[in-house]
Amino acid sequence: MTPGKAFLTSDEIRPLAQRSDLMGAWLVAHCWGTIAFAIGLFALWPNPATFLLAVILIGSRQLGLAILMHEAAHSALFKSRKLNDWVGEWLCGWPIMADLHAYRHYHLTHHRFTQTDKDPDLALSLKFPTSHASMRRKFLRDLTGQTGIKQLAGQILMFIQLAGDDDAIDAAKTQSAQAFKSNTLGRAFPVFIGIALAISLVGDWWWGLAFWLLPYLTWFQFVLRVRNIAEHGAVEQSDNPLQNVRTTHAGPVARTLVAPYYVNYHLEHHMVMHVPCWQLPKMHALLMTKGLGGQMRTAPNYRAAMMEAGWRSS
């Protein structure tokens, strides 16, 4: 049973679950528009401050693309499955070297077995709470590109090892989400490189490296980790949908730099996973009116969520 049905009626869920092609198109356009804006800002005022801002904004929108691919995986971005799949692949997933179809299979398993021994994401959340030193090392590796380079190198290596070996690919698919991604590198990598080349053609030769690869290797990896920690780090390992996942409140700055497209309403998403992301604030408000606020796992901001997971002095 959908966890949300224990707290919301079908009549309450139905309007929240209504999808909108117009809103889906706006979210995708907004994401790519923000990327274009960041590059344009540097083009107009080239200096270290606008360069750094562009890298951060683009990295946050690369996370935005991942979130919109996640929406498409739930068939919540558009009304039709075909449009969800096409946009989710070409405009959201492949630009960041992720595979929609493999992710869908993996992610739906996570929803079915959240915070249980069968949850494929359990290994990520079991690391928390951790120490301040450990969190600092993780964030440092992300922001200096070490995490991104290691991940990218792993994808390329596995792709080379599995190329042409269908039996090996099938076996690897049962082992990890990374193997899923590696099998599609031959399709996703040209899209990723094509975007970088297009950016270089718009500006100088190095712009593609600076404004696509660099954000991907640094800020994207950092905010991806922050998102994962905030959602399931140091939460209750149980089947209680109010406590085995966290919603983190986010102001305008956090929504711009860390939590685009309502990704912070993760408890609500787990309640009814096919509700579009832009409807999640309404679901949150509805749950609050039912007096569930005191029972829900929430954090007032991302700093507080990180502190719960271990961002405090040992």
TrEMBL record:
Name of one Pfam family that matches: FA_desaturase
CDD domains on file: Rhizobitoxine-FADS-like
Residue ranges annotated for the Fatty acid desaturase domain, each copy included: 48-288
Keywords, in A-Z order: Membrane, Oxidoreductase, Transmembrane, Transmembrane helix
A GO CC term attached to the entry: membrane
GO molecular-function term, one example from the UniProt record: acyl-CoA (9+3)-desaturase activity
Record has Transmembrane as a keyword: yes
Domain of life: Bacteria
EC numbers on record: 1.14.19.6
TM segment ranges: 24-45, 51-73, 185-203
Biological process terms in GO annotation: lipid biosynthetic process
Enzyme class: oxidoreductase
UniProt keyword Oxidoreductase present: yes
Name the record gives this protein: Delta(12)-fatty-acid desaturase
Source organism phylogeny: Bacteria, Pseudomonadati, Pseudomonadota, Alphaproteobacteria, Rhodobacterales
